[in-house]
Amino acid sequence: MLDQLPHIKPTTLKANVTEILRQLIIEGTLAPGTEFNQAQIAEQLGVSRGPIREALGQLEQEGLLQSVPYKGVIVTPLTRKYVEELYSVRTALELLALDRSITRMTDAEIDHLDAIVEQMRVAARNGGLSQLVEIDLHFHEYLLEKADHELALKLWRNLEVGMKRCLRTRHKIYTFLDEVVGSHPTLITALKARDRVLARQILSDHIAESLHNLLANWPLEETLESSMLPTKGQ
Prior knowledge:
Elements: H1 13-27, H2 38-45, H3 49-61, E1 65-68, E2 72-75, H4 80-101, H5 107-125, H6 129-145, H7 150-171, H8 184-192, H9 196-216, H10 220-227
């Protein structure tokens, strides 16, 4: 499974190891529940265990890895409970941002959001799942940036890695990736009209639909296996 991992140059070691492992987890190459084998990964990357241990600490802080008694370090499972909690916090932060940004954004900034949606359409047509996830999140992050609320933006960015995992899972359930564009254009229309009530409803429904689609297609076996994994203190 890990035969194709790239070797990295010593001069870029610290910068690259964590990012490579983060992407392997987000993309599912290191699947939820997989034991994090430091020796194997160090060998495949062509590095010593030191940088792997440093990366491990960072990835645990981000919630991508966790220590489990009798199993060692594993890739954090994507449980239904985690996804529901993630989306509840995401909803609160984005609605807060919308309330503030809708009165602050200029017409040019709303046009920029429209351009981001067009980028989503292009990525969908080209079958670029990774790029589509990044652009999708960029759309929502831009709303946070325009809200002029530093703490909300910081909290949202702390959720970003988890959202990337969820979005990659969610986007795989669509027959056509352009379905991901969804209600983004309608939200932009409401923003242009400065219709706060309508914009809140569209955004709330958009996030709720995303969560519904994700959970409706949740792999039953993975859910059951994840729920049976021991956690700290058990």
